[in-house]
Amino acid sequence: MSFDAIDTWWWPFVFILIAGWAATDGWRFLGVYLGGKLSEESDLLVFVRCVATALVAAVIANLVVFPGGALADSPLLLRIVAAIIAFSAYLLTRKNILLGILAGEAVLLSGLFLL
Amino acid sequence: MSDNAKSEPQRAEHQQGEGRAYWYLRGVLRSFSVPGLVLTSAFIGFASLARDAGLSLVQTVFMTGMIWALPAKVVLVGAILAGSSLPATALAVALSSVRLAPMVVALMPEMRTPRTRPWVLYLLSHFVAITSWVLAMESLRSVPREMRTTYYAGLGSTLVLANMIVVALVFLLASHLPPQVSAALFFLTPIYFLTSLWGSARERAGHVAMILGLASGPLFRLLMPGFELLAAGLIAGGAAYAWHRAQRRKEVVG
């Protein structure tokens, strides 16, 4: 029952709906249901924010350390150095996101063309 | 001020009527920003990934509208490429998306008023993904509470629709990108989130959670592949919360 298993026009869409839509919006709807029970000042919400932030941070780190696509062919050290420089530039420029991104991309691209 | 509005219900209603369109538009405009631009670049990278995987334009646009969260879509395309079965693919996508639940839980109390209808929140929750969440956590504080759902509707729907169009355009227009350009586009997503997540933190514990989460993501990927996000969220997030409690106790005592 893979994506190519049934040779009709509609099967890929059913596959995307079950494996994609249900698997993501299910969590979102659960979040609305549970979020309705918490107030904004609740201490439990600090915990939930901590978990959500740590999860997103883990996604970020894995995108840098174990990337997919064209980025997978670049050296790991180059990606880590570029990410550290991006974050340092962001902090040094008083939290300017654009300058942070430009610094990181500049390091990555020069590394890719020079190495 | 609220007493005043209550004593003049008609005027209050009129102001609200004007306010809805204004705040919707403010939300729409917020999506045309550096974060929105970065997300669009990431979607250019994703669309070329999907095209290389043999997906059609309609399938990829459909996927963008229905799933929306980029990491979940990357996992889905990866599973399709690997020829995974439907249950295995659904499990992988679901595991990569657990974070959506706590993100929505954290966001809902910011948007909700006692009069907000539940279906509005369920509908709006579909727009939750990292970019719109970070943008909302940053900007909702400066939006009047009554207008926050409207604002987020403008922000979220514009991001989704604009990127569905971008995905279609990449399929129609782009020839194969040079590998360095694709790599640079893929790299935009993590470094954008790296900077913006720091700025969206509500309390110091958010920064602690972020640092611990960054370290534990790759660590748990090696220790327990498939469950790394769940483990990183609970352990790193739990540790940050414990730090938060310890700090507060110190403040109370000291």
Automatic annotation (TrEMBL), chain A:
Keyword Transport: no
Residue spans crossing the bilayer: 12-34, 46-70, 76-92, 97-114
Top-rank lineage group of the source organism: Bacteria
Database matches in InterPro entries: Brnchd-chn_aa_trnsp_AzlD
Pfam annotation, one family: AzlD
Annotated keywords: Membrane, Transmembrane, Transmembrane helix
UniProt keyword Phosphoprotein, yes or no: no
Protein name, UniProt field: Branched-chain amino acid transport
Organism: Nitratireductor indicus C115
From TrEMBL, chain B:
Subcellular location as annotated: Cell membrane
Gene Ontology CC: plasma membrane
Organism domain of life: Bacteria
One protein family per Pfam: AzlC
Membrane topology according to the record: Multi-pass membrane protein
Chief location: membrane
Entry keywords, A to Z: Cell membrane, Membrane, Transmembrane, Transmembrane helix, Transport
GO BP annotation list: L-valine transmembrane transport
Keyword Transmembrane in annotation: yes
Record's keyword annotation contains Transmembrane: yes
Membrane spanning residue stretches: 32-49, 119-136, 151-174, 181-199, 219-243
UniProt similarity note: Belongs to the AzlC family.
Protein known as: AzlC family protein
Organism: Nitratireductor indicus C115
Lineage: Bacteria, Pseudomonadati, Pseudomonadota, Alphaproteobacteria, Hyphomicrobiales
